[in-house]
Design brief:
disordered N terminus, globular, single chain, 14% strand, 379 residues, alpha/beta, 10 helices, 8-stranded mixed beta sheet, 31% helix
C-alpha cells in the first residue's frame, strides 16, 4: 500500500498568519466560510484545519464543511536569464557600544524607553516639525509621491532567480543618505507601506520596500487582495527572507546609499521578518520590528549584529506576551535591545488606514524609530 502523503509542519510565521485570519473572523471582519477557506489553503488539510479552529474556539462543526478550493490565481512572472543573486554578507564581529538595555518595569504595562528619552504614559501630540510622521488618512497617503522634498516610485531589481518588484523613496538633492529596508504587513506592498517609505525619505533616508508577492506577480496583480495573507502563508519563508536580503543588496548598489550598513523596519508579518532579516544579514546595523512575532528558535538571535528596538501594543496580547522571552534571549547573548509597550494600543497601531490605528502610539514610535536609526545607523 502506498503511504499517504503528509503536509509539512506549519512554521511559526504560517501559524501567525492563521491566527490573524482567526482574529479577523472573531472581529467580524470576514465571514466564517472565508476564514475556513483561507486557513485550509495554508494547512492543505481538512483535519488540520478543523483541529486548529477547534483549539481557537472557532470549531462550530468539528470539521469544516468547505471543500478544498484552488489556490488564489496569481500571475507567474518569467524568470530572467542570469538574474543576479544578492552578494553574501560576510559576518563581522561587533561589540555593543553599551551594555544591552533590557528594562524590567515595576508597574504594568511593562515598557522600556530608548536611552535619553523620558518615560511617559502618553505619547506626544506630534513629532518635531518637518518630520514625516503620519496623520490619519484612509487613503494611505500622508506624503504624496509628488512632494518636492523627495523622489519616489516603483522599482524592479534582481533577486535570486526572479526579478523583484518594490518601491523606492529618497530625499531629493541629497548626495548620500542612510538606507532603510521597509518590510510590509501581511497585506502586501500597499499604498500605506509606500507612504511609509516616503515618510522616511522626508526625514532624510533612502528607503526601499520589497514586494514579497513578487514571485506571484506582485501585490497589484492579485485580483482578490484578501488572498494576499494566504499567498504569503503558502510561500517559502526562506525565499521571502532571501528576497529581503536581495533588497539590501539592491540598496547597496544605489549611488546615493551612504552605507556601509542598512537599517530595517517592518510591521506585523513584516515585523517578524525584520527579526529574521537581522538574524540573516550582517549588513543590518539597526532593526525596528513593530508588533512582530519573535524568531523560532529564539536562540537564533545570537546571530544578530545590529541594535534592535521593538514596539508592542498592550492589548495585542497574542504578540506582546512573547516580549519577556525575546528580551531574555537578547540579554542572554549580550545584544543591544530595547522595547516599548504602548498602553491601550492594539496590534497594527501604526497603520493609519486600519481600525486599530492609535495616533499617539504611532507618532511616538515613529519619533523613537528616527532616534534609533540616527544613533545606530548614522553613527
Amino acid at each position: 500500500m502506498k503511504a499517504p502523503q503528509t503536509r509539512p509542519t506549519l512554521d511559526y510565521l504560517q501559524r501567525y498568519l492563521i491566527e490573524e485570519m482567526i482574529e479577523e473572523y472573531k472581529d467580524a471582519h470576514i465571514p466564517r466560510r472565508e476564514m475556513v477557506r483561507r486557513v485550509l489553503l495554508i494547512t492543505g488539510s481538512i483535519p488540520a484545519t478543523a483541529s486548529i479552529l477547534l483549539a481557537a474556539g472557532c470549531g462550530g462543526n468539528p470539521t469544516p464543511t468547505l471543500a478544498p478550493t484552488a489556490a488564489p490565481k496569481v500571475a507567474t512572472p518569467a524568470t530572467p536569464a542570469g538574474a543576479a543573486s544578492p552578494a553574501a554578507a560576510s559576518p563581522t564581529s561587533a561589540t555593543p557600544a553599551a551594555s544591552p538595555a533590557v528594562a524590567t518595569p515595576a508597574t504594568s504595562p511593562p515598557a522600556a524607553t530608548p536611552t535619553g528619552t523620558p518615560t511617559r504614559a502618553a505619547s506626544p501630540a506630534g513629532s518635531p516639525a518637518g518630520r514625516g510622521s503620519p496623520t490619519p488618512a484612509a487613503s494611505g497617503v500622508t506624503i504624496p509621491p509628488t512632494d518636492p522634498a523627495i523622489e519616489a516610485g516603483p522599482v524592479e531589481f534582481p533577486g535570486q532567480g526572479v526579478t523583484l518588484k518594490g518601491y523606492r523613496s529618497s530625499p531629493r538633492g541629497v548626495a548620500k543618505a542612510p538606507g532603510l529596508l521597509v518590510i510590509h504587513e501581511n497585506r502586501g506592498l500597499v499604498e500605506h507601506i509606500k507612504d511609509v517609505t516616503r515618510r522616511y525619505a522626508k526625514d532624510g533616508y533612502l528607503a526601499v520596500a520589497v514586494d514579497l508577492v513578487s514571485r506571484q506577480g506582485g501585490t497589484d496583480s492579485i485580483a482578490n487582495q484578501g488572498d494576499i495573507p494566504t499567498i504569503l502563508g503558502q510561500g517559502d519563508k526562506n525565499l521571502q527572507v532571501q528576497d529581503l536580503l536581495s533588497g539590501i543588496a539592491y540598496l547597496k548598489t544605489l549611488p546615493n546609499f551612504a552605507g556601509p550598513k542598512a537599517g530595517v523596519v517592518g510591521y506585523c508579518y513584516g515585523g517578524g521578518l525584520t527579526w529574521l532579516t537581522a538574524i540573516n544579514s550582517a549588513d543590518v546595523a539597526a532593526a525596528v520590528p513593530y508588533y512582530g512575532p519573535p524568531p523560532d528558535p529564539l536562540d537564533d538571535v545570537q546571530k544578530i549584529t545590529g541594535a534592535v528596538l521593538a514596539f508592542y501594543g498592550e492589548l495585542d496580547t497574542r504578540i506582546t506576551s512573547n516580549e519577556p522571552a525575546i528580551a531574555a534571549a537578547m540579554q542572554k547573548y549580550n545584544k543591544v535591545f530595547e522595547f516599548k509597550i504602548y498602553p491601550g494600543a492594539n496590534h497594527a497601531f501604526n497603520n493609519d488606514t486600519g481600525q486599530s490605528y492609535n495616533a499617539a502610539a504611532s507618532k511616538d514610535a515613529y519619533a523613537r524609530s528616527l532616534d534609533w536609526f540616527a544613533k545606530y545607523l548614522k553613527a
